[in-house]
Amino acid sequence: QVQLVESGGGLVQPGGSLRLSCAASGFTLDYYAIGWFRQAPGKEREGVSCTSSSDGSTSYADSVKGRFTISRDSNKNTVYLEMNSLKPEDTAVYYCAAGPHPCGSRWYHWGQGTQVTVSS
User: Fold this and answer.
1) Pairing between strand 10-12 and 114-118?
2) Pair 49, 81: CB distance under 8 Å
3) Residue 74 DSSP SS3
4) Could you tell me which residues come within 8 angstroms of residue 10 by beta carbon, excluding any fewer than 6 positions away?
5) What's the rounded Cα separation, in Å, for the pair 95 and 112?
6) Spatial separation of the C-alpha atoms in residues 19 and 12, rounded to whole Å
7) In this predicted model, what pLDDT tens digit does every residue of 32-82 receive, in sequence order?
8) Distance, CA of 26 to CA of 44 (rounded, Å)
9) How far apart are CA 113 and CA 86, in angstroms?
10) Residue 41, preceding bond cis, omega within 30 degrees?
11) φ and ψ of 5, to 5 deg
12) For residues 58 and 101, what is the distance between their CA atoms, to the nearest angstrom?
């Protein structure tokens, strides 16, 4: 069964850090571009970051550049999103998705999401 499972969300104070995980089962993440997305209440879903192992490229939304880092562990079939210097506006449900190389607009598989809340 093809599945993506996010974890690592939670409640954190402004300025804090979290590391989200996106674990795959039923397929190999290295064969896909992996994107992180988020959706805040009342807002559209937005792309946060993407990594493509075909060319080693990574990309970030301007709003998270310098604060978030995407990485993958092929042995664990998992992609991570390290989030530092978190702000209240980072509050959202975060999703990962798998799509064809390189990072683009088509996504085959989605996870169920993990809630991130940044609040004092």
Assistant:
1) parallel
2) yes
3) helix
4) 18, 115, 116, 117
5) 7
6) 11
7) 999 999 999 999 999 999 999 888 899 999 999 999 999 999 999 999 999
8) 29
9) 18
10) no
11) -130, 120
12) 12
Share of residues in the chain with pLDDT > 90 (%)? 91
Query: In the structure encoding, which two tokens stand for residue 96, read together?
Result: 């990962």
The CA distance from 94 to 2, in Å, is 19
Q: Note the maximum CA span of the chain.
A: 40
Other Cβ atoms closer than 10 A to 17:
11
Amino acid in position 34: I
7 vs 4, 18, 97, 105, CA distance in Å? 10, 10, 13, 23
92 in Cβ contact with 48 (< 8 Å): no
pLDDT classification of 105: cutoffs 50, 70, 90: confident
- What's the order of all strands across the beta sheet hosting 18-25? 3-7, 18-25, 78-83, 68-73
Q: Residue 74: which residues within 8 A CB-CB, separation 6 or more?
A: 29, 30, 53
Compute the distance between CA of residue 5 and CA of residue 111 in angstroms, rounded to an integer: 5
Would you call 113 helix, strand, or coil by DSSP?
coil
